[in-house]
Automatic annotation (TrEMBL):
Gene3D superfamilies: P-loop containing nucleotide triphosphate hydrolases. GO terms for molecular function: ABC-type tungstate transporter activity; ATP binding; ATP hydrolysis activity. It is an enzyme of class 7 (translocase). Belongs to the ABC transporter superfamily. Sulfate/tungstate importer (TC 3.A.1.6) family. Its EC number is 7.3.2.6. The keyword Transport applies. This is Molybdate/tungstate import ATP-binding protein WtpC. The lineage of its organism: Archaea, Thermoproteota, Thermoprotei, Sulfolobales, Sulfolobaceae. It catalyses: tungstate(in) + ATP + H2O = tungstate(out) + ADP + phosphate + H(+). The keyword Disulfide bond does not apply. It comes from Stygiolobus caldivivus.
Length: 205
């Protein structure tokens, strides 16, 4: 359960948004500069609201630091550049003993779509789409309550197939997703979709 009611003054407008959702998969659409990324940063704890609150499962986390919220924000830049792929995944798992088990999981390997040589490369040596796959899978392996995805599906090859499998796996693991996109067709993957304009959210369905 996500309950958000916040205000934040930005350069051109005041972000004034409310979300009260039990939905497991939420999509937020809108033009560049409408406040979508700022909203995710507020929910994740990287920015503080000027007014209001953020509650997760009836727990007020407004003053919590990001690490204490069990929320992972994934952006196109959220990867650890100097870690090889296996260590990057381990950073999410936090348990060396489980690494081999994860590497043998066909669904995880399917999401990554990496060959054996790629597992030995550093994250910074991967293509943008491959880095996004790595970041999103690492986030999933960390077992958060929410994964906030800021445009990070956009550069993945076979995006629709990836999203379908990724969201299926998050559901099975009890992880909720809020994703931001400019591709309105991505609404097919969401239980609830919103449109953001000048910092205000409007329900689409």
């Amino acid at each position: 359960m996500l309950d958000v009611k916040i205000k934040k003054k930005l350069n051109n407008f005041v972000l004034d948004s409310e979300i009260n959702e039990k939905s497991k998969v939420i999509a937020i659409f809108g033009k560049n500069g409408s406040g979508k990324s700022t909203l995710l940063k507020l929910i994740a704890g990287f920015l503080e609201p000027d007014e209001g609150y953020i509650k997760i499962d009836n727990q007020d986390v407004t003053k919590y630091p990001p690490w204490k919220r069990r929320i992972v924000l994934v952006t196109p830049e959220s990867y650890l550049p100097n870690l090889v792929v296996k260590k990057h995944l381990l950073w999410g798992i936090k348990n060396k003993d489980k690494l081999n088990e994860v590497l043998q999981d066909n669904r995880i390997r399917g999401l990554l779509s990496f060959n054996e040589e790629t597992f030995k490369k550093k994250a910074k040596e991967l293509s943008l789409g491959m880095r996004q796959r790595l970041s999103l899978v690492t986030a999933l392996l960390s077992s958060p309550r929410y994964i906030l995805v800021d445009e990070s599906f956009a550069n993945i090859n076979n995006k629709k197939d990836f999203m379908n499998e990724y969201i299926s796996l998050t559901r099975e693991r009890g992880v909720n997703i809020i994703f931001v996109s400019q591709d309105i067709s991505d609404a097919e993957f969401a239980e609830r979709s919103y449109w953001m304009e000048n910092g205000v959210l409007k329900l689409m369905n």
